[in-house]
Amino acid sequence: MRIPMLDLSEQYSKIKDEVLSKLDEVMSSSQFILGSHVKQVENDIAEMSKTNHGIGVGNGSDAIHIALQAAGVSEGDEVITTSFTFFATAGSIARANAKPVFVDIDPVTFNIDPSKIEAAITEKTKAIIPVHLYGQMADMDLIMEIANKHNLHVIEDAAQAIGSTYKGKQVGEMSSAATYSFFPTKNLGAYGDGGMIVSNNDEIAEQARVIRVHGSKPKYHHHMLGYNSRLDELQAAVLNVKLPHLSTWSENRRTHANYYTEKLNDLVGDFVIMPNEVEGNYHVFHQYTLRVKKRDELQAFLKEQGIATMIYYSIPLHLQPVFKDLGYKEGDLPETEKAAEQALSLPMFPELKQEQQDYVIEKIAEFYS
Ligand SMILES: *Cc1c(COP(=O)(O)O)cnc(C)c1O
């Protein structure tokens, strides 16, 4: 049996007719930039996020960068975030000419540890970016409490967590802004790049709208420097077809996650720690990520058996060569570094079959027996 991390083919076959007819609609209308499909998906995703504004941009990385700029983050400012995330989180901070300040993670959720944030705040701190890693929201109550006390913006990196909730609250509902990615492998994936900022802050939303069109307002009048980063109309048309399915797809992911957890629990004992859904959270399982002993050997063994797995993330950002001038060294963020040695993500997508999961589970048990 060969089991990929992600297989988008079955999903496409189910929505193919609708997608092709929407794409035809766009091409026949000749309205390719910021047309009605972008408007619709901005409205629908803002509504889902319980926010007043949705701003479609070129990708999830630009969404973070633009949200930071729109919130006034600039040269010399510091932004607190996690080191255990995709590069774009800290890359976007640096592109906004600010300095990423890394805080260690909570070993249970892999998300930023709120109890370590306050010690990292200085006069230069402007914002906190929690990342809702693998599809589970960070501890937003504590993060918002700290941010409010110190007058900081919170920008949620929700690239992996569209549709997740925290104590009944949506992504973007509590903070200054949240950012989504529509990279094809994300839970709501386009057929190319795409991203969005959602916000309840009128000023940030207005600034973000101006930044994505070269800082132009009114048209051809430039009072600030922006750039070209817009959600593409064709991608928006695809997203409009997919969005109504998102809650079912999230439920399917959760069913698969429960199945993995239940079966692995019986079989692998102390060798494997399953992901934990914190009470009050709705985890959308962008990834199903274990902590395992002998991780690299297990990964190689599974590969021989035809099972794809991924390591998110093997090198934490504070140890990346491009950030060496920030002055971090090995040992600075022990929980992050431990997670980087133990994390292993298993195949996960809504259309995953039980027999595929059984095979993965059987082979993991075989490895440890
Ligand atoms: C995917 C991702 C991004 C970047 O999104 P792109 O659309 O690929 O630019 C940012 N942060 C996290 C946590 C991601 O997983």
From TrEMBL:
Keywords: Pyridoxal phosphate
Coiled coil in keyword set: no
Residues with PTM N6-(pyridoxal phosphate)lysine: K186
CDD domains: AHBA_syn (cd00616)
Active site: K186
Gene Ontology terms for molecular function: pyridoxal phosphate binding; transaminase activity
Biological process per Gene Ontology, one example term: polysaccharide biosynthetic process
Family that this chain belongs to: Belongs to the DegT/DnrJ/EryC1 family.
Matching PANTHER family: 3-OXO-GLUCOSE-6-PHOSPHATE:GLUTAMATE AMINOTRANSFERASE (PTHR30244:SF36), TRANSAMINASE (PTHR30244)
Name of the protein in its database record: Transcriptional regulator
Origin species: Sporosarcina ureilytica
Lineage of source species: Bacteria, Bacillati, Bacillota, Bacilli, Bacillales
